[in-house]
Amino acid sequence: MQLDKIVSYHKALADPTRMRMLILLSEGELTGLALAGKLCISPATVTHHAAKLRAVSLVNERREKNAIYFSLNHYFLQAYASAMSQLINQRASEEPNENEPMDEKNERLKQSVLKNFMTAEGKLKHIPSQLKKKRIVLEYLAEKLEPGKSYTEKEINRFIEQFHPDYATIRREFIMHAYLFREQEIYERNPREMWEKWETLS
């Protein structure tokens, strides 16, 4: 994971109120007013702190009538912790080597899926419905994004349209499966250690 994302994550946590918010949200979804009451702060202060946590994808937000509900994003909480652990404790012998061949069975499956869902011209025929196959296709497309490069939404849409016209669905799937990170309408490819792995699915 890029160092700046880990730094931003820890900056977001470097506040007692935000830590208490995460602890409360670990028990379930709460409205902004409920959080304000439990933390003895104003709703505006809750909104301020929630924005900091949302910027690093630690909380989700949804509006229902006049109420704003907040919930904990468990996936990214675990992903950041895992990335930090790997960054500090990784050993050269344990790091995946992208130049080494994949397990033969996984490689055969990957090539079979890509053959079935991609045309000879490199277009995506349709988005797979099966989760494992979908992740194989998403990974294949995400690998074509430049690591560390920031993309506007229009640029991401144009990139996806090279492969399939439904750029909105694929853009959403990229984010849902952690291949892509979005902050203030700017997109960036997540590091590989954050990608949801298709190899672990049955």
Q: What topology emerges from the helices and strands here?
A:
Elements: H1 3-13, H2 16-25, E1 30-31, H3 32-39, H4 43-55, E2 59-64, E3 67-72, H5 74-89, H6 104-117, H7 131-142, E4 150-152, H8 153-161, H9 167-176, E5 180-183, E6 186-189
Antiparallel strand pairs: 1-3, 2-3, 4-6, 5-6
Helix pairs in contact: 3-4, 6-7, 8-9
Describe the protein's architecture and organization.
It contains nine helices and six strands, in the order ααβααββαααβααββ. With about 200 residues, it is of the alpha+beta class. The strands form two sheets. It has a three-stranded antiparallel beta sheet. β2 and β3 (about 65-70) form a beta hairpin. The radius of gyration is 19 Å and the shape is elongated. The two termini are about 25 Å apart. Mean pLDDT is about 85; it is low at about 90-95.
Q: What attributes characterize this protein structure?
A:
6 strands, alpha+beta, three-stranded antiparallel sheet, 9 helices, 202 residues
Secondary structure tally, helices: 9
Shape: elongated
Q: What is the C-alpha radius of gyration, as a whole number of Å?
A: 19 Å
Poorly predicted ranges: 91-96
- Please outline the major beta sheet: 3 strands, antiparallel
Strand tally is 6
Structural class: alpha+beta
* Strand arrangement, major sheet: 1-3-2
SSE string, helix = H, strand = E?
A: HHEHHEEHHHEHHEE
Percentage beta strand:
5-15%
Distance between the termini: 26 Å
**What is the residue-averaged pLDDT?**
85
In helices, the fraction of residues equals 40-55%
